[in-house]
Amino acid sequence: MDGVPCLRVSRCLAQHFRRCLQSEGALDLSLGLVGDSDGTVLLPILPSCLSQLDLQSFRTTAGSDYACEIVWSQELLESHGERWTEELREDLPHSFQRHGDLVLLGDHCFALPLWKKMDDKLWSAVARGLGAKRLAKMRRISRDGFRSPEVTVLLGEDSWVKHVDNGVTYEFDVTKCMFSAGNITEKLRVAGFDCRGETVVDLYAGIGYFTLPYLVHAKASHVHACEWNPNAVEALQRNLVANRVSDRCTVHQGDNRQLQLCDIADRVNLGLIPSSEDGWPAACRLLKRTTGGILHIHQNITSPLQTAGDNDATQRVSGKKADREVWHSWANDTANRIASLLKDLTGALWITNIQHIEHVKSYAPHVHHVVLDLECRPS
C-alpha cells in the first residue's frame, strides 16, 4: 500500500477500529487489512478523510491512549536502501491541517536527516498519500508581534488557500497567516448568537475567525474589526468580499489600544490567548454608556495538578471539579476588575453578571482555553 495512510491497531482491537472507521466513512474499502509482524494490524484510510479523524475519541472508546496511531507504508524507504525503524515511525506526521488541496504539516515530523536524501520524491509521495496537490510545513510561530507562521512550501507554488467552516469561507496565505482550527466550537457558538440590530467590535479579528460568523450567521448590523497584522488585514478584506458582508464591516488596522471609537458597542469580542487583558480598557470604552453590553473574554487558565493515589475515575471527576472551580474563580475576579474599570472610566457604578463560561479546548498539561460571557450594565 505505497503512499497510503493507515491506522495501526492491536490485532485484538482491529474489528472495533474497523467499525469506527467505517462509521466515519474513512475506511478505504478498495484495500484489505494488513497484518504486521509485531502483532498489529494496518487499516487503510481514505486520504481525504485523514485530517477529520478524531483519534482521541477512538482511543477513549477503546479504553487506551496507545490503542491506535497513524502510520505510513514503507516502500519509499526500501527503494532508497533504508530499513524501517521506530525512530523513523515517530518522525512521521500524526496530525496536520488540510486547506483545500494544500496540507500543512506540523513542525515535529520529517526532521531526521534521512528524509533529505529523498528530495521531491518524498513530498510527492506524502502529498499523494494525503490526497493533496500542495504541501507545506510549519516550522514555528514567529516572535514578530503578529504571531506570523514560519512556513515552507514543500510542493506547489501558490500559498493562498481556501478553508470553509460552517458555510463561512476563509482565504489566507499559509506562509503569512495562522488558521486556528481548534476554535471551531467557539465559532459555531458565535454563529448561534442573535445579534440582529447590534454593533459588535472584534478587538482581535485576524483573518475574520469570529468577525465573519458574527456577520454571516449571527446577523450583526455592523462589526468593527480591529487587526494590526497587515497580512491578516489583507486576508480579512478578501474574506469580507468573498462572504458578501463587506458593506457591514469596518476594518481598523493598527493597535486596538489606540482605537478612537467609544460608546458604540452592544458586544465586544476579545479573542486573544493566552490573555486578552491588554484589551480590557479598550473594551470598556467601547461599550454603550446608557445600555452597556456583553464582553466575550478569552483566556488560557492553568488548573492545579492532581495528587497521586486516587484511581483514574476518581481523578477525572475531581479534576473536572477542580477545573471548574478555577474557571469560576478567574471569572469572578475578572468580573470585579471589569466593573472597577468601568467605574473609573465613567464615574458611575456598573453591574457585571457572569452569563456563561465556555470551555473551548485543552492543552497539556492542565491548560484550558475558556471564554467568559460577561454582561455589563450601568447601575
Automatic annotation (TrEMBL):
Residues 96-378 form the SAM-dependent methyltransferase TRM5/TYW2-type domain. Keywords: S-adenosyl-L-methionine, Transferase, tRNA processing. One of its GO terms (molecular function) is tRNA methyltransferase activity. Pathway: tRNA modification; wybutosine-tRNA(Phe) biosynthesis. It comes from Parambassis ranga. PROSITE patterns: SAM_MT_TRM5_TYW2. S-adenosyl-L-methionine-dependent transferase that acts as a component of the wybutosine biosynthesis pathway. Wybutosine is a hyper modified guanosine with a tricyclic base found at the 3'-position adjacent to the anticodon of eukaryotic phenylalanine tRNA. The keyword Plastid does not apply. It holds the Pfam family TYW2_N. GO terms for cellular component: cytoplasm. The gene is tyw2. It catalyses: 4-demethylwyosine(37) in tRNA(Phe) + S-adenosyl-L-methionine = 4-demethyl-7-[(3S)-3-amino-3-carboxypropyl]wyosine(37) in tRNA(Phe) + S-methyl-5'-thioadenosine + H(+). It is an enzyme of class 2 (transferase). One of its GO terms (biological process) is wybutosine biosynthetic process. SUPFAM superfamilies: S-adenosyl-L-methionine-dependent methyltransferases. Its EC number is 2.5.1.114. This is tRNA wybutosine-synthesizing protein 2 homolog. CDD domains: AdoMet_MTases.
